[in-house]
Design brief:
About 20% of the residues lie in helices and about 25% in strands. It is α/β, with parallel strands linked by helices and about 400 residues long. Strand 5 and strand 6 form a beta hairpin. It starts with a strand and ends in a 9-residue tail after the last helix.
């Protein structure tokens, strides 16, 4: 019997394998990973410093252990060269041809790279996986002059940028966060919530510069780095961390002739444009939605596992609040649909903020919300009032 082959050993890939094994004890499962294939939670990377975690301690289970647990063959350090759709096989970089009954693409996403100038542009870091975090942690411990880093510039005041800014405060590092937008988390939060988050992070030592971007990174004569911004100003720093967003990995699917848009296009059953090939996680665009968060990923894993086990099951997305990992200002957001007509109504006190986005045509209809401080306790209550993101 040909196996179900899963390309990718992140949360998406391993959760499909786990859920499938619960439903089918016999189907062979092969997980192919280009790295060590250990199981860890990627969302923990942006608050690992506060928990004094290392790359080693973030690994919950090594490849051999999780492979035994789910009765799957885990192929670590194995790169996939191409997919042969007609033969229903994947071709590995070492020339091995591995046939599949069904193929699951859990390829993840890559950090967006800015075209920066300067003789130290290649030193800009991104943290997108465990190896990246190990490199980042090592760089924090020993900067360009061999001393622990005290100054960090973060590119991007979105979700990941703000989370890393909060986490760096636990290392007594005062980060400077740059963004072309005019405020933090501009795509997720109303203005009052953005300002509240910013002020709490600033109270801890973080700084924000809006309306500017990074232009060049150069080695400074006195050690460290000098960054030049698009407004002509400069900053001295020890390290630059880019957190401007992710781009779904689609090249492997594209080379195989699968339909690609922002991500690998799949239907409500997570099926791609080729028979017996599915996509989940950060690389998948599900009915127009590309949601790089844990809750949609888990919903995908459960639905696809049921389909692979013989019960065709469409994925459904209920309202899925996102917890922003900024303990300096506890924040939960359930963003309204992109472009939805409506307005934010904000109520705030010294220790809480509640923002409700209501429909322009029906002010009684809640389309999204943002909660901060003590108001985060209302997350489940309000989520029950928000329409589903995607119906099955």
């Amino acid at each position: 019997m040909d196996p179900v082959v899963i390309i990718g050993s992140g949360l998406a890939g391993y959760n499909v394998a786990r859920e499938l094994r619960k439903l089918d004890a016999n189907v062979p499962i092969v997980v192919i990973s280009r790295d060590h294939a250990g199981f860890y939670s990627k969302p923990m990377l942006s608050n690992a410093l506060a928990g004094k975690k290392t790359a080693a301690t973030l690994v919950m289970k090594a490849a051999d252990k999780i492979g035994a647990e789910i009765n799957a063959q885990v192929r670590a350090h194995s790169a996939v060269e191409r997919i042969d759709v007609q033969a229903r096989a994947v071709v590995l970089a070492n020339g091995e041809v591995l046939p599949y009954r069904d193929l699951v693409l859990a390829l993840g996403a890559d950090p967006i790279r800015l075209p920066l100038q300067g003789n130290a542009a290649d030193t800009v870091l991104s943290v997108n996986d465990l190896d990246d975090f190990a490199h980042f942690a090592q760089a924090l411990d020993s900067g360009a002059d061999g001393q622990p880093v005290k100054r960090v510039v973060i590119l991007g005041a979105g979700l990941i940028g703000c989370e890393f800014a909060n986490d760096l405060l636990h290392r007594d590092i005062a980060p400077t966060v740059l963004d072309l937008a005019d405020r933090a988390l501009v795509r997720l939060l109303p203005e009052a919530a953005s300002q509240r988050l910013q002020s709490h992070l600033e109270a801890g030592g973080a700084r924000f510069r809006f309306g500017v971007a990074l232009q060049s990174v150069d080695r400074a004569a006195h050690g460290g780095l000098k960054v030049t911004l698009t407004d002509g100003s400069t900053l001295d720093t020890d390290l630059v961390l880019s957190a401007i967003g992710l781009r779904p990995r689609t090249s492997l699917a594209d080379q195989a002739g699968l339909r690609i848009n922002r991500g690998v296009v799949v239907d409500h059953h997570l099926a791609t444009s080729a028979a017996h090939i599915y996509a989940v996680g950060d690389c998948a665009e599900v009915a127009g939605h590309n949601l790089p968060f844990v809750l949609p990923l888990m919903a995908q894993a459960r639905a696809l596992a049921a389909t692979l086990a013989g019960t065709h099951t469409p994925v459904a997305y209920p309202a899925m609040p996102v917890v922003v990992k900024t303990p300096a200002c506890p924040t939960v957001v359930c963003p309204p649909p992109m472009g939805a007509p409506g307005q934010w109504v904000v109520t705030s006190t010294d220790d809480a903020l509640e923002a409700r986005f209501t429909s322009a045509s029906n002010p009684e209809q809640l389309l999204g919300f943002a909660l901060q401080g003590k108001a985060v306790s209302q997350r489940q209550t309000l989520a029950a009032l928000v329409p589903p993101v995607l119906l099955d």
